[in-house]
């Protein structure tokens, strides 16, 4: 695609309006998926991932408008200079081309992914999960109708309506047609894509997210942050899954945490031996528990003797998504942020803020846990590459 910024923004604003105008249709189709999932006895948390409501659809539409308001990165000059041969060299942002996305459950992803790829002059191929097929078809229908009304090719977005694994594997190997593949889902999906894809992959994050409560923490603040990070929406990748507690405050903090959570939501703790002895109710953790993304009201707990041990622990068990330290010790906070090897590292705040919308990027296409090209919430710039433009006056290399 080679559309002007004005053309892209007009389409996105039209799409936001169409999503709201088609609320009844979209929610009706979403209910087909939701009721089918209930028949299959899906957990309440998985049902929450799948569900669209008027409020959530309004938030999706607002995200579309926010992307329209963002600066268009295409054509931005990254750097420009004249080399010793007199060549004028300019590096500009350009589109990636065709982006494919394989994702699970959450139907809002189809709109988020389209908006970001469209704004960056990319086309997108979507392959959602079987459980959200009706929802994704409805949302993509609204998108394609908006494109048609704007006289833009409807193939700027395509949905693979066959959710079979064979077709997904074919997409992973479609090097002639796809420039980059982004998986967004659980550990099994991401691992499968990493192992089988021939198309270049941007790995998005499984979220084994840690919170470390330091010996110099405000314990009431720590309990409130953990409650938010664990229980506000446990089915998302920025929800906290693992808790580390300094040994000097563990005896006083665990009872406070249990009391705080008792007023909100029961959480099952999988604790190491020392923490297990203090909890009124917990299970002994296995080695597997410390690496696990629960996506549920469950959490692993371990006791450490220093900020250094906490950093070492996190760098070993983490999925390198988001981590937080709760402390009033500036030196410990700075060390933690410098040495923890994750995409987002917090001091005295909930990890639930790791989100493209919250970071001001508009909708996000995913949260990258890689170190190459893109890391953390992936907004517009993460969906661009660059190209060098070189202008000379007849120079030849000797």
Automatic annotation (TrEMBL):
Enzyme class: oxidoreductase
Record GO terms (molecular function): glutamate-5-semialdehyde dehydrogenase activity
Chemical reaction(s) catalysed: L-glutamate 5-semialdehyde + phosphate + NADP(+) = L-glutamyl 5-phosphate + NADPH + H(+)
One Pfam family linked to the record: Aldedh
Aldehyde dehydrogenase domain segment(s): 18-263, 299-357
Alphabetically ordered keywords of this record: Amino-acid biosynthesis, Cytoplasm, NADP, Oxidoreductase, Proline biosynthesis
Pathway participation: Amino-acid biosynthesis; L-proline biosynthesis; L-glutamate 5-semialdehyde from L-glutamate: step 2/2
Cellular localisation: Cytoplasm
Similarity remark: Belongs to the gamma-glutamyl phosphate reductase family.
NCBIfam families for this protein: PRK00197.1 (NF001221), proA (TIGR00407)
Job of this protein: Catalyzes the NADPH-dependent reduction of L-glutamate 5-phosphate into L-glutamate 5-semialdehyde and phosphate. The product spontaneously undergoes cyclization to form 1-pyrroline-5-carboxylate.
Protein name listed in UniProt: Gamma-glutamyl phosphate reductase
UniProt source species: Streptococcus didelphis
Lineage of origin: Bacteria, Bacillati, Bacillota, Bacilli, Lactobacillales
């Amino acid at each position: 695609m080679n559309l002007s910024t004005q053309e892209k923004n007009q389409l996105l604003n039209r799409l936001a309006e169409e999503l709201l105008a088609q609320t009844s249709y979209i929610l009706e189709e979403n209910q087909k998926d939701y009721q089918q999932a209930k028949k299959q006895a899906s957990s309440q948390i998985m049902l929450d991932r799948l569900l669209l409501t008027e409020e959530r659809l309004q938030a999706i539409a607002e995200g579309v408008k926010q992307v329209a308001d963002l600066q268009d990165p295409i054509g931005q000059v990254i750097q420009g200079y004249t080399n010793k041969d007199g060549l004028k060299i300019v590096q500009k942002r350009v589109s990636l081309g065709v982006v494919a996305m394989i994702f699970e459950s959450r139907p809002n992803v189809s709109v988020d992914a389209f908006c970001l790829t469209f704004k960056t002059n990319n086309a997108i191929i979507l392959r959602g999960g079987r459980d959200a097929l009706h929802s994704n078809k409805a949302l993509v229908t609204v998108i394609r109708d908006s494109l048609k009304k704007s006289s833009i090719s409807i193939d700027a977005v395509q949905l693979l309506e066959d959710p079979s694994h064979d077709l997904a594997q074919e997409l992973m190997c479609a090097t002639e047609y796809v420039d980059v593949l982004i998986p967004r889902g659980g550990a099994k999906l991401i691992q499968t894509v990493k192992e089988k894809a021939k198309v270049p992959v941007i790995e998005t994050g499984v979220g084994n997210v840690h919170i470390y409560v330091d010996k110099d923490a405000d314990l009431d603040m720590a309990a409130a942050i953990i409650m938010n990070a664990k229980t506000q929406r446990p089915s998302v990748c920025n929800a906290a899954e693992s808790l580390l507690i300094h040994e000097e405050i563990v005896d006083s903090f665990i009872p406070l945490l249990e009391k705080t959570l008792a007023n909100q939501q029961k959480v099952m703790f999988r604790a190491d031996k020392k923490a297990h002895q203090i909890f009124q109710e917990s299970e002994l953790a296995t080695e597997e528990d410390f690496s696990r993304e629960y996506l549920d009201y469950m959490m692993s707990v371990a006791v450490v003797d220093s900020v250094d041990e906490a950093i070492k622990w996190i760098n070993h068990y983490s999925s390198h998504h988001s981590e937080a330290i709760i402390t009033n010790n500036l030196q410990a906070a700075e060390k933690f942020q410098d040495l923890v090897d994750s995409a987002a590292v917090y001091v005295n705040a909930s990890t639930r803020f790791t989100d493209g919308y919250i970071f001001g990027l508009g909708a996000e296409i995913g949260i990258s846990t890689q170190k190459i090209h893109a890391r953390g919430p992936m907004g517009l710039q993460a969906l661009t590459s660059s190209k060098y433009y070189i202008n000379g006056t007849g120079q030849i290399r000797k």
